[in-house]
Amino acid sequence: MSIMTNSPSLSDKLELPCGAILSNRIGKAAMTEGLADGHNTANERFVRLYQRWGEGGAGLLITGNVLVDRWHLERGGNLAIVGEQSNTSLAMLADIASAAKTHGSAIWMQLNHAGRQTQKMVNKHPKAPSDVGLKMGNGRFGKPTPLSKDEIDNTIEAFVHAARIAEQTGFDGVQIHAAHGYLVSQFLSPLSNQRNDVWGGSLENRAKFLLNIIQRTRKAVSPGFAVAVKLNSSDFQQGGFSQEDSARVANWLEDVGVDLIEVSGGNYEQPRMIDFNRKDPLAANKRQSTLKREAYFLDFVPLMRRSTKLPVMVTGGFRTVSAMKTALEEDGVDMIGLGRPMVLDPMVAGKILAGKIEKLISRDDDLIIGTGLMGPKSPISFLRDLNAWGALGWYYEHIYSLADGKKPDTNLSPFKALLAYDKTEGKAAKALIR
Ligand SMILES: Cc1cc2nc3c(=O)[nH]c(=O)nc-3n(C[C@H](O)[C@H](O)[C@H](O)COP(=O)(O)O)c2cc1C
Predict the structure, then answer these.
(1) Are 13 and 21 contacting, i.e. CB atoms less than 8 angstroms apart?
(2) Which of 12, 96, 212, 286 is the most buried if burial means most Cβ atoms within 10 Å?
(3) 411 inside domain
(4) Closest Cα to atom 21, ligand 1: which residue?
(5) Tally of domains within the chain
(6) Closest CA to 162 of 119, 99, 225, 224
(7) Whose CA is nearest to atom 3 of ligand 1?
(8) d(CA 152, CA 11)
(9) Which residue would you say has higher pLDDT here, 366 or 202?
């Protein structure tokens, strides 16, 4: 088994710039768990979930987003690390890390702040780079107020603090969530960052928030602790964060000691991270090359590859082993990221590595509640949102099953999942104690 070969295979190890070694090229992508209590602390259900994923044998497990600010959660049931942690909370985090690592996986904690993508049921008055509200959600999101300079500094420190706790409790690394329209991604985009101080304007200024988080985190943790970034290849919005911007940021990340960049894309206004609309007739304007390829962000990799030598993980749409092999052998990808397939079969990585399967279990296309006018590309925003929340809700239900030691019921109706989603999310937000 070689390390860093020119044309790696899925079972090859990967050595990261910090010196840490991942045992193979399959990574579980971050998926929000929604299992935390009203204090946003961990419990046994997280431990069981990561034990199951650990048994699967992926080289890397990335947790769902862990929030660094309890007023800016992505959802009520998020795990959050803010301020001093109780001994119980530290012990529970340590249990998650050790459950995940039992069979040789590395575990990284994904750190996030939702900014303007915080739902009203969590906080009616979120903070963001600028006072630009989301153009979606039908009243689910409040109009943000701009962060002051001190608040920006405190938020950077909150990321650093959470990274220190991650290391202290046995995690092997952190991944800063700079994608999907959350706070770091809001700073990067000229549409949501309209500041005219040092944090806004040029791409250099808009990237400062992310680069500061990385620089300060790198200094706060041990040299062998991985610091990674999930970055949008693009926001897919006119005048937004473009592929060229993303490639330039990737280049700067190399200078500040990043270990791996995970490529994704989109945000709540353009939910391309879960490309659930491939069968929708209104999606016909998509580039043919993207439609042909199951992993929908691969087209961006050549540009990324020209701008950075950092290890690159690509996530989104991988459903066959042959597509994964091609990505490693021909596209310069170093790690294959899997999200939804890991929910439908937590043992999927081991099966891939043992050559037991070619096609992964998938329910992507038929989770759409309607097509055309009713579909996810509908001009009627309420219907578009319904599809996005419905598809997510379906996976949320399955993550709960895994955490409870059950087998996911793949026949669950998407509509039922949507109803359950609304109920569970409302309950978790109401339960918040702050
Ligand atoms: C239920 C669910 C929860 C997710 N939560 C997160 C998250 O917390 N952080 C993140 O970066 N991406 C999140 N994602 C996006 C995934 O990491 C991944 O980018 C996306 O699902 C595409 O990969 P896939 O086609 O292999 O599922 C989530 C996706 C799903 C389906």
Answers:
(1) yes
(2) 96
(3) no
(4) 339
(5) 1
(6) 225
(7) 31
(8) 41
(9) 202
